[in-house]
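For the sake of transparency, this paper describes our internal protein records without simplification. Such a record has a labelled line for the sequence and another for the backbone structure tokens. Nothing more is needed to write down the fold, since each code stands for a local backbone conformation. For reference, a complete record is included directly beneath this paragraph.
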Amino acid sequence: MRKTSIYVRILLPALIIFLLLPPVVYGVFLVTARRQAEQDAETELTAFQEQAMELANDYLKADMANDPEQTRRFLQGISRLVRGENGNARLLLFADGHSLIYPYLEEEREAVSPLADRVARELSAQGNLMDAFVFRATAGDNEYLISARPSPVLTKRLTHIITYCPVSGIGAWIGEAGKTVFLISMAIAVLLVAVSAFTAHSITRPMRVLCAAAERISRQDFSPIQSPFPLKEPEALRLSMNDMSQKLEKADRAQKTFFQTISHELRTPLMSIGGYAQGIEQGVFPDSGAAAKVILEESERLTNMVNGLLTLSRMDQDTVPVQLSPVHLTDALGEALNRAAGLALKKGIQLELQLSDPALTVCADESLLGTALDNLLSNALRHARKAITVFAKAKGNRVMLSVMDDGGGISREDLPHLFERNYKGENGHFGIGLSITETAVKKCGGSIKAANRPEGGAVFTISLAPYREDGKDNSRG
């Protein structure tokens, strides 16, 4: 399926709309302007007609309606009225028998003769209808808007007062105005198309830059996008991509360092195992039992390292099932201390468990919590001098587990990096134990932090949610 660019998708509909705008505006203007003009013309005809009606009332009194002198004076008044300012309105007067009595000059009568005949036929068709009416009629080459009204005075000398105006005159100025409207709307459409093109470009340009940056990141080029964007959304996306790029670069460096470190750590026991095995084979070592002991120790070290790597890999891939359930700390901590007791006895280190409440229960995965405690105790046994204390207490809506030793503490340089993968502090083993611990604690919905004790030694504190039967405090934190 062929894809279209954002620029085309935005600009094309706008272009179509703006191209249709001038003819639509032009057509709407013609229709509405003509309708309004005809309404205005009809109002003008009616007003002119009212003035003629007033003259008829003034000069053609009922008792003198058939007086020739009164009729003459009425027609003179009509002549003055017609010569006044009445816009496009014109006047016709009909007497009995639909005979035209105004205009009375011969040349004017000949000019309006086609229209007068057409009006006379319409009056005949209306019969004895005494109401005013408006109609359109064509006479000669022109079309007219005509308003007919019976005379207000009953007399044979004046039966109907007719006002009219040519429709072509109305259409002429509308046509000229329509051309102006069309040109103005065309100019507006062109301007709007230009604005739409600029707007579309202002949107698509950041998209092109962001797409290019994403392509660079796919090639492991993590250089940030330097130039800010004026629009809020693309700028927010730029900042997010820069942040993502930094994190990916950091992860990439950490991964490379991790593999380099692990390769080195794996090579050392493998070389030891190979060297001692070759010595036994060639009979170099007079005491093969001592050489075999070294091989077993290095094999155990290698096994522990591989198991740690597999555990960390399964956690990263979410293949380790997490089952949050109530874990009684008295049992969990007691079992962890029992597992560490042998090594502690060998090193002469005392293990102590302190619980503020023997009934303390947390919401966690028992297996993952055990892994985290084993790693913390193993780490503490490498640094402690005489004693390790495991302490648990409730604090607010959390339960705090602390593993404390009386060793030399954590150096200021090591403290920020303790939970980073492949980072080995003083007396560290493989650089993955504390990273496994942090991952396990997070999967249990908790957090972990490290600090130095004021009286000496290090303390690692795990924060977990307490378990309650209603489940309200079992949220992950």
Notes: The mean pLDDT is 80. The longest strand covers residues 142-155. The chain is about 55% helix and 20% strand.
